Amino acid sequence: MTTAQSLDWIFAKPRTAKLATVTASGAPHVAPVWVARDGDKLVFNTGVGTLKGRALARDPRVALCFDDEEPPFAFVIISGTAELSEDPEALVRWASIIGGRYMGAERAEEYGKRNGVPGELLVTVTPTKVSGALAIAD
Questions:
Q1: Residues of the chain with pLDDT under 70
Q2: pTM of the model
Q3: Number of domains within the chain
Q4: What is the DSSP secondary structure assignment for residue 11, as one 8-state letter?
Q5: Which of 22, 78, 87, 110 has the largest CB neighbor count within 10 A?
Q6: From CA 34, how far away is CA 14, in angstroms rounded?
């Protein structure tokens, strides 16, 4: 799949990503995140003091895995570099978009107010490598 095809598949429906970061000890850490799309970039929120937030501040390298657990199965893995922002307007805007994507448009504002607050980070991932496969079990 091309990068565009991979991103189109990821965002065809709300899929939770598995975010991989590198801890201070060099160990891998994986956690689920909700993600939105900004052109060819991916956007999500996390707390400044979370393991994810601390890891991203120290080392911007990430990988995100999206998968379909129903036959015939599919996945996309994106490796990239994360950029962090604490811009209040951008936090509220993207937290609203992300919340609306996963919880419905009627709850977007609620999630924007909840997750677009001081102490939260806006994380923008620029992909450097995209790979994936559809219909693995066919």
A1: none
A2: 0.95
A3: 1
A4: T
A5: 78
A6: 8
